[in-house]
Amino acid sequence: MYLLDYTYWKTADTLLRSGYEFIPSSDYSDEIWLEAPGKSPYDMVRLHRKNVDFHQEIVRDANMQAERIEQVRISLNKRSIKVLNLLFSAEAPVDDWEEAIGEPYKKGKASVESALIHTAELDQGIQRIEASLQTDLAALRHLREDDISYDDVQGVKESFISLLKKKEERRKKEAAFFQNGKPFFTYIFIALQLIMFFLLEINGGSTNTETLVAFGAKENSLIAAGEWWRLVTPIVLHIGLAHLAFNTFALWSIGTAVEKIYGSGRFLLIYLLAGVTGSIASFVFSPYPSAGASGAIFGCLGALLYLAVSNRKLFLKTIGTNIIVIIIINLGFGFAVSNIDNSGHIGGLIGGFLAAGALGLPNTSARAKRIVSAVLLVALGGGFLYYGVHSPAHQQTALVQQAGRLYQDGQYEEVSELLSGEAQQEGASADLLRILAVSDMQIGEYDKAAALLERAIDKEPEDDTSYYNLAFLYAEKNEWAKAETAIKTAVKLKPNEQSYKELQEQIERKE
Hints:
Layout: H1 3-17, E1 21-23, E2 31-35, E3 44-49, H2 55-76, E4 81-89, E5 105-107, E6 110-118, H3 122-133, H4 150-177, H5 184-202, H6 209-215, H7 220-224, H8 241-262, H9 264-285, H10 294-310, H11 312-318, H12 322-336, H13 342-359, H14 367-390, H15 392-408, H16 412-423, H17 430-442, H18 446-459, H19 464-476, H20 480-493, H21 498-510
Parallel strand pairs: 3-4, 4-6
Antiparallel strand pairs: 1-2, 2-3, 5-6
Helix pairs in contact: 1-4, 5-8, 8-9, 8-10, 9-10, 9-13, 9-14, 10-11, 10-13, 13-14, 15-16, 15-17, 16-17, 17-18, 18-19, 19-20, 20-21
């Protein structure tokens, strides 16, 4: 009398505890819809408690559900939906009904496969469910009517309802987790990016290095000279339309999620701190001017990774491992393609992770984690910044960049005065020696320039421009044999350079 009802509720309860999710409906006393987990061969499972007298009832029900699911599929824009339709009937239909459950019923790209569970062959029905759903219903095997009472039915029904309420409470908490703020600052930064791009374009172009530096791009020598604000301003500057479009889309898609999770105040700090740590990393590891929100955006990814560490279950359920794949793809792309400042990306990623840890997730304590994260953030950021300012190699790079600007302005004697002392050091770079040499050439210091170029070639034997300039100097000094050797090497290294060939012809005629 109660066995079938018990089986109905116990099956629903077991599936719910196995990872199936309840799909709300008006009344689940005789119809329960469940969304299947990824491992299931079906997308949805329907449990329907209805006594079936004739096979035509099975056919009508299956067709009706197929039409219903096809409408759902279209509204959800799903490629296909496969449903297992479990009918719980006290008795089997009085006519031939087996053919009614043989093949799935289809409507469009919706498929409904029916199975009948009735009291006379209950064990076979349980086995059919286990095989179809690849699940274990051992508690229902070999049960008899005498084994089940009304209280048993009520007990398993209440268990199912209680579990539903717990899942609903958990769902509400998870939904609230993404309602800690509205994406206010995300849109502010997007607007700033667009405004600054417009200003760059009307003042020389967003791909013009001088314009970028004038508007606040990261430039190592200027940062070393005390322009610390350049650690922040690159966040809203972009180099070219493609750079702007990619980062604006990334900020819109990732930043909005982070701001909803952490709240607007925390998001602002995470974004700025990640941008600064990205700029510091670029300052330390990249000698070239740079700009862009990439470091700050990678900081948003770092904040999501902190969520994964703090609440792994929620992370996997709501965001998932896709974010890790995005990080790996972007870093891999940065290493594979030239002119991408991956040091800024990695610095921003670490900075965002530590900033999120220092600020903490909303409505959580974790004081020890916050303190450790804050200490690490300050120590790493401050340590790398100190190293960047005081490292001999970085000081030399800053001098070279400063000298480059002086050279472009025609201040050759100032270049010579700035670099002569550093050039005497054994560790002077080839870049420093080259720019000092060409400056000395401009002011007539040919012997000094030749010596500098010879040292630059010792450091970088494949440097064709140094051979060319050296050939020119030897020619000016009438040292034709040396000039010919130098220009031949330059042509060999870069055979298609017309200016090299012209100088070679002049030298050969003089000989």
